[in-house]
Design a protein that fits this description.
The complex is a heterodimer of chains A (312) and B (343).
Chain A: H1 4-30, H2 46-56, H3 62-74, H4 89-124, H5 129-143, H6 146-160, H7 173-203, H8 206-213, H9 218-246, H10 250-255, H11 261-270, H12 274-302
Helix pairs in contact in A: 1-12, 4-5, 4-7, 4-9, 5-7, 6-7, 7-9, 8-9, 9-12, 11-12
Chain B: E1 6-17, E2 20-32, E3 37-41, H1 48-56, E4 63-72, E5 75-76, H2 82-88, E6 93-96, H3 110-121, H4 126-139, H5 145-148, H6 158-170, E7 176-180, H7 188-205, E8 208-213, H8 216-222, E9 225-230, E10 233-239, H9 240-245, H10 250-257, H11 297-301, E11 307-308, E12 314-315, H12 331-342
Helix pairs in contact in B: 3-4, 3-6, 4-6, 6-7
The chains are: A mainly alpha (312), B alpha/beta (343).
């Protein structure tokens, strides 16, 4: 276990460095955005504007504001939202992160499991009926936007069959089913396509031939030798996909009236809500670097060839 | 004669490809006695691997067995169901592959890979399976089995991996071991070790072996009998002595002449001219004729049958027809026979 410690320490250091660079770059870039956080600015008098600037600290030089901001972040203070009557950003995002992350994880989990299964079936029936069916499904899933799927799902399950709520976030798990399904189409199609390609290659490799020569059945071969080897490259794609789903999909969240984070982000950019933009960006980046880090660890657990070696 | 354990009768196998039907194996017959080692020799693409894959029931999906039967202990393997073949594969007939670097699952501990082969064919407990694996590791000469059991393929050298592949093949005490160029991917010292190991194992277990190779040097070491294949046919078959020291087919002459011996001095090594024919719509007549300096008119018209030379030795060349002109084998072949006489 000791061999992991220097590796993890090194990785954590680089993660912190990455975040620092992202924070710095976003902070300065954001200040070049046209406009200010105050709407109706034209109608404000000079003294009113000066008062507002002073209240939010915009009268200080950019660089000292940057240092200030860094200091606050280290204390877990992400500032206040400029658009929602001075609410603290940590509380604001805290309320909205939950639904997005839950939907994202559910969608990735469901989508990947089904996608991997379909991809396996496709690979085992290469160039035959089932393969064509799975590939068609994958192509459709990749090309149809998820909001179209969302509306279709609503029509079918909420309006026609009346099985599930059409939207909102008030029936617990039942409310999450349709948005999860809509969001899961893309990871499902992606992993189906991916696993099929990998699996076709793995199934034609020598060690699979050896497994056949042992007298193993095709199904057992696919699960015990095929899947593990085909899954390894999927992990790489899966990480970033998970993050992008966890951080919320603006359109799907809107369609199902889910109080998620996706909507928040777009609104904050449109209204120059500096501190919310910063906070959401930091959140996204932190999630991404963490997931990439976890992916690498997972890689090493699954593939013995890339395990960290004790440095001799 | 002792009852053969495997008898292949008039086997023909074709592959359907976009370019046409490839007649990869054409009317092959041979048998394999208990404890015997038969070498299948020939250039790449001559059908030796396809023959063995037919025996294992491991042909590619676009392959078609056109005719023939493969009798294993009197039963035709070609008539067996998938399930029945699975019990035979690895259980009664096992196979060793060419490239040990790619034949093991890189993500599974080798102990489990060998144990799989044990438990597929025997109802044993985990503990018993592991004991059997350790026994097999010892048999194939891998030391510290207890520790090695938990290691992955990348922690072994090429030679060791081939030993593991052999251990997998031996897991269920097969009656027949098919070795598809097991030493080709190894360096020369490793080759010798693996060949010794295989001979040793065969002595201990009495398994019959089909040894596929393109290396006559290897054949001389291991084989009791030799079948020389060319363009999907067996062109000469006989005991190792007969094929090495009294070869009758011009293709066998060419193969032997292109093999360096201790007597070979600085002269240029002989190479058979031309390339093997395509097996899509093969031309009529003997397919070796275009490369054969001894080709007769008859070769262009019809494929020669296997003429008997002795009770165990057959060759498919019109030169053995009583009407054919008397032709002496090339000097290199006669020298080989003389040298043997003086040994």
């Amino acid at each position: 276990m000791n061999r992991w410690i220097p590796y993890i320490a090194k990785r954590l250091f680089y993660m912190a460095l990455t975040l620092f660079i992202i924070i710095t770059a976003t902070f300065f870039l954001m200040n070049f955005l046209p406009g200010t956080p105050f709407n109706n600015q034209d109608r404000l008098s000079a003294s009113q504007l000066e008062m507002l600037n002073k209240k939010y600290g915009f009268d200080q030089p950019l660089f000292s504001r940057y240092l200030n901001y860094l200091g606050n972040i280290l204390h877990g203070d992400f500032g206040i939202s400029l658009q929602f009557s001075d609410q603290k950003i940590t509380t604001l995002l805290g309320q909205r992160m939950g639904p997005s992350i839950q939907l994202g994880l559910q969608a990735v989990l469901f989508g990947t499991v089904v996608g991997v299964f379909l991809g396996m079936i496709a690979a085992m029936h290469q160039n035959r009926g089932l393969d064509v069916f799975c590939s068609l499904f994958a192509i459709t899933g990749r090309s149809v936007p998820n909001f179209v799927v969302a509306v279709l799902l609503q029509y079918l399950f909420a309006i026609t069959l009346k099985w599930l709520p059409i939207g909102l976030w008030d029936e617990g798990f039942r409310s999450t089913i349709l948005p999860t399904l809509a969001l899961s189409i893309s990871p499902m199609a992606e992993s189906c396509r991916f696993i099929r390609t990998e699996m076709v290659e793995v199934l034609s490799s020598d060690y699979i031939e050896l497994a056949r020569a042992k007298g193993m059945s095709e199904i057992r071969i696919a699960f015990s030798h095929g899947l593990r080897n085909a899954l390894i490259p999927l992990i790489t794609v899966l990480g970033p996909m998970t993050v992008s789903l966890m951080t919320g999909s603006l359109v799907v969240e809107n369609i199902f009236a889910v109080p998620g984070i996706g909507e928040q982000f777009t609104k904050s950019i449109l209204s120059n809500d500096y501190y919310t933009i910063m906070a959401v960006t930091i959140l996204f980046s932190a999630l991404l670097v963490t997931v990439i880090f976890l992916t690498d660890i997972l890689y090493q657990l699954i593939d013995p060839r890339v395990r960290v070696e004790g440095q001799a | 004669m002792i009852e053969a354990i495997l008898r292949v009768n008039h086997l023909s196998v074709s592959f359907d490809t976009y370019a046409g039907t490839v007649r990869a194996v054409r009317d092959i017959s041979f048998d394999l006695g208990p404890g015997e080692t038969l070498a299948l020799v020939g250039e790449s693409g001559c059908g030796k691997s396809v023959t063995c894959r037919s025996v294992m029931g491991l042909l590619a999906r676009n392959a078609r067995v056109e005719a023939g039967e493969i009798l294993f202990q009197g039963e035709d393997l070609l008539k067996k169901s998938n399930r029945e073949m699975r019990a035979i594969r690895g259980g009664k007939i096992a196979m060793i592959f060419q490239d040990p670097m790619t034949s093991l699952d890189p993500t599974m501990k080798i102990g489990r890979q060998i144990a799989e082969a044990v438990t597929l064919h025997r109802k044993v407990s985990r503990g018993e399976a592991k004991r059997r694996v350790l026994e097999l590791l010892q048999l194939v000469g891998i030391e510290e089995g207890e520790k090695r059991y938990h290691q992955y393929p990348h922690e072994f050298s090429g030679g060791q991996r081939q030993r593991i592949v052999i251990a997998i093949a031996l897991a269920a005490d097969p009656r027949i071991l098919i070795a598809d160029e097991p030493t080709t991917a190894l360096d020369v010292t490793m080759q010798a070790q693996i060949l010794d190991l295989m001979k040793d194992i065969q002595r201990k277990t009495g398994t019959s072996v089909i040894f596929i190779t393109h290396d006559l040097g290897v054949v001389a070491n291991v084989a009791d009998r030799v079948a020389v294949m060319y363009a999907g046919r067996i062109v000469e078959i006989g005991t190792a002595d007969e094929v090495f020291y009294d070869p009758r087919h011009p293709y066998t002459w060419g193969l032997l002449a292109s093999m360096p011996t201790l007597a070979t001095e600085d002269e240029k090594l002989y190479a058979i001219p031309g390339t093997p024919p395509t097996l899509i719509d093969p031309q009529p007549g003997d397919l070796f004729a275009p490369r054969n300096p001894y080709a007769l008119e008859a070769d262009k018209i019809a494929e020669p049958p296997l003429f008997p030379v002795s009770g165990t030795h057959f060759a498919a060349t019109w030169l053995l027809d009583p009407r054919a002109p008397k032709i002496d084998p090339p000097e290199a072949i006669r020298r080989r026979a003389r040298e043997r006489g003086s040994l």
